[in-house]
Amino acid sequence: MLAYWPGTIAPGQVSEGLFDLCDMSNTPLGIGGITDKIPTERFIDGIGQTSFLLTDGGHSKRDAVFTYAENMLMAIRWMEYKVHFKVFKNEFPRRNLDQSTVHELGNESVGLQPLHGSIRARQYWPLSV
Q1: Four-CA torsion 79, 60, 1, 101, nearest 10 degrees
Q2: CA nearest to 74, candidates 60, 61, 63, 85
Q3: What residues contact 51, with CB distance under 8 A and at least 6 apart?
Q4: How far apart are CA 52 and CA 38, in angstroms?
Q5: pLDDT in tens, 91-128
């Protein structure tokens, strides 16, 4: 996500914190001081991320982001890991591959490759779905 607000958001900040599209309702309402406009009669997925955007070195309040294709859960990003349950193969539109793997996103030597053969238990979990 790219945020630009001269005089309010310090330029040049980079963060690996999570910000979901759902947060784009609660966060502006928080900045505007009108969080009482957030509906209370139903569950709202968004999280107010005002401090993440406006504080130098602010931290995200979100631990996970869920990715769906229509009503099918495709992936989950949790902290520095991303779990893929299904992957679309580009040569064949809408054809799913069963590649249930976990990727460690911050490890430059691994990149986005599945972490096969790792000695450390936290780096790789084969999944069955």
Answers
A1: 10
A2: 85
A3: 58, 59, 61
A4: 19
A5: 655 555 555 666 667 665 544 444 444 433 344 444 44
Instruction: Give the pTM.
Output: 0.65
Annotated domain spans of the chain: 23-54, 64-123
Q: How far apart are CA 20 and CA 25, in angstroms?
A: 10
The tokens of 51 are what?
């401090």
Burial class (CB in 10 A: 0-12, 13-18, 19+), 17: middle
Token reading at 121:
């238990």
The answer to whether the Cα torsion of 108, 113, 119, 122 is positive or negative is: positive
Q: What is the dihedral of CA 103, 105, 106, 111, to 10 degrees?
A: 80
